[in-house]
Structures are given as structure tokens and as C-alpha cells.
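To the wet lab folks,

You asked to see what we're planning to order before we commit. Fair enough. Below is the target structure as C-alpha cells, and below that is the sequence we designed to fit it. If anything looks off to you, flag it before the synthesis order goes out.
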């Protein structure tokens, strides 16, 4: 399977699988710099949740790309199955991380509300 031709800062290669007609993955393709910037800007407008949401979308696109490659015979079925399992694991981790962050945010907001209510009751007691 062809891999991205990008060399990371540590000198190691990018491990992402690319189509036979591609040299770089989405993240390292110099021709997609503008697209990545637009997507990142859109992600930042999601109230701090842009990264996980964008990552889930990226993983979904990778699933579709992988399926197409398997169906065209560019990736054998066994390699495609393993790659799909790994992508599914990454998607589950991202989804679980997003859910945990949402729970933390809700817990923080609930704690603030409880403190506000407690302070209001304390003021009522002293003003009565």
C-alpha cells in the first residue's frame, strides 16, 4: 500500500495510506493548504468542539476512501479490514473524548449553578 511521502520533524515518514495516484495524505498535501485552513476556521466556530468534530468527519472520509480503494482493488481486503478496524478504534476514541469533554463542561456549569443558588440562599438568610 502506498504511504504519504511527507517526512515529519523527527525524520520519520508519515504513516498514512494514500491512493496510488497521490503522493501526500490530506494533512500533508501542499495543494490542500487553503482547504485545511478553511476547515480549521470552521472548526474553531463550534464552541471549542471543532477539533473532535473535524476529526470525526476526517475519519469518516478516510473510511469512505478506504472502502473505495478496496472495491477498486488498490488495497487488498485483509489490509483494508485491519485499516478499517484501526480507523474505527480512532473514531471511538475521538467520540469518547468528545463525550467526556461535554460531560466535564456540563458538570462545571452545574457546579456554578449550585454555587449561585447557594449564595442566593445565603443572602436571603442574612437579609431576612
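Sequence we intend to order:
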Amino acid at each position: 500500500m502506498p504511504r504519504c511521502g511527507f517526512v515529519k520533524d523527527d525524520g520519520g515518514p508519515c504513516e498514512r495510506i494514500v491512493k496510488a495516484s497521490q503522493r501526500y495524505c490530506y494533512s500533508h498535501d501542499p495543494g490542500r493548504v487553503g482547504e485545511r485552513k478553511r476547515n480549521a476556521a470552521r472548526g474553531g466556530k463550534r464552541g471549542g468542539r471543532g477539533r473532535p468534530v473535524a476529526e470525526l468527519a476526517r475519519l469518516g472520509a478516510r473510511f469512505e476512501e478506504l472502502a473505495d480503494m478496496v472495491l477498486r482493488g488498490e488495497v487488498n481486503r485483509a489490509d483494508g479490514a485491519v485499516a478499517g478496524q484501526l480507523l474505527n478504534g480512532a473514531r471511538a476514541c475521538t467520540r469518547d473524548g468528545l463525550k467526556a469533554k461535554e460531560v466535564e463542561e456540563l458538570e462545571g456549569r452545574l457546579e456554578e449553578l449550585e454555587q449561585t443558588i447557594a449564595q442566593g440562599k445565603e443572602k436571603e438568610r442574612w437579609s431576612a
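Structural context that might help your review: Residues 120 and 126 are 10 Å apart (CA to CA). The first helix runs from residue 33 to 43.

Thanks,
Computational group
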